[in-house]
Amino acid sequence: MSRLRDREDEADRIASAAEGLAVLLDAGIAPSSAWRHVGRASPHPVVRQVAARIEGGSTVEDALAAEAGVSGSDGGVAALSAVWRVAVAAGSPLSPALRGAAAALRDRAEVAREVEVALSGPRSTARLVGWLPLVGLGFSLLLGVDVLGVLTGSPVGLGLLGAGGALGVVGRIWTAALVRRATPRGGVPGLEEELIVIALSSGLSIERSRRLAAEAFGMAELGTAESSAVDGVLELAERAGAPAAELLASAAEQHRRSARASGRRAAADLGVRLLLPLALCVLPSFLLLGVAPMVLGLISSTVEGF
Asked: Could you tell me which residue ranges the Type II secretion system protein GspF domain spans (predicted)?
């Protein structure tokens, strides 16, 4: 399973846990008890571990922050940790915040699915062409040409073997780097705006809401919050006299749409960029290891026949 598929599955499972927590909290169950119930039912080991930490005496905020540090900063549990911390600190209702986090995580998983589908073709092509040199060797052996003898029995053959092998390795490394670069990274798009909206919904000031969001980013090990986009939205709200929360929610949705478009664009570009290692490394390696030794073997056998 690819790293992108792992990320997609994690986001979906964390979203399911958040939705379950919201339902239990609406039913009047205490947060710690709700986590214990969800932890027993969830197939996600991170959710179960959070529940175990809470049963061991940790607060929900501390358990989420600790598990976010273990599971990685781009995981869904880190986003859930930040949302929970802001909602508790601001005194906002937990259920709407959890449902908002679940929706954002579902959207993130959808982005990962779309990019995974778009990358599947180029990635399969990259794997296939990487085996071409060995396929060429196999065909030569089937034709009765002693390719291995040609490659190891003369300086020319050793040169072909070294050059072809080196090109094959470079092609594989290059291809893997291109696929890795096209794979989307980072956390949940629009999370900073969502955190500020959660804080604003409790009546806090914009400055206090932004401070809570920045602190939650740090506690969940999500890195440093990007402030430039938020600054622009808040300036627009101030000039127009529009509700800042609604504009921030709209900006968060726009970030998620942009992330989806960027993922699709990266996958489409990958299909073109993969032609470079194919043309410059893989195909020359195929010629040096599969075609050239076969030609040399046929020539040598013909000369020996005369």
From this structure: 21-139
Q: Please give the model's pTM, rounded to 2 decimal places.
A: 0.70
Average pLDDT, consecutive stretches of 10 residues, N- to C-terminus, the chain (306 residues):
58 87 92 90 85 89 81 69 89 88 80 71 70 74 75 85 90 85 73 88 88 79 64 83 86 83 79 84 83 78 59
- Residue 306 and residue 299: Cα distance in Å, rounded? 11
In the block, tokens 């929610």 appear at: 249
The verdict on residue 120 lying in a domain is no
Q: What is the dihedral angle through the alpha carbons of 105, 83, 194, 22, rounded to the nearest 10 degrees? A: 70
DSSP labels, 134-188: HHHHHHHHHTT--HHHHHHSSHHHHHHHHHHHHHHHHHHHHHHHHHHHHS--SS-
Supply the pLDDT for residue 23. 94
CB 19 within 8 A of CB 99: yes
| 92 domain residue, yes or no | yes
Q: Looking at residue 28, which CATH number applies to its domain? A: 1.20.81
Domain assignment present for 170? no
Angle 177-179-185 (CA atoms, 0-180°, nearest 5)? 95
Phi-psi region of 224 (alpha: psi -120 to 50; beta: other; left: phi over 0): beta
Half-sphere exposure of 47 (CA within 13 A, CB side): 26
Residue 3 domain boundaries: 1-108
SS3 category, 75 = coil
**Count of domains forming the chain:** 1
Is residue 39, in this structure, part of any structural domain at all?
yes
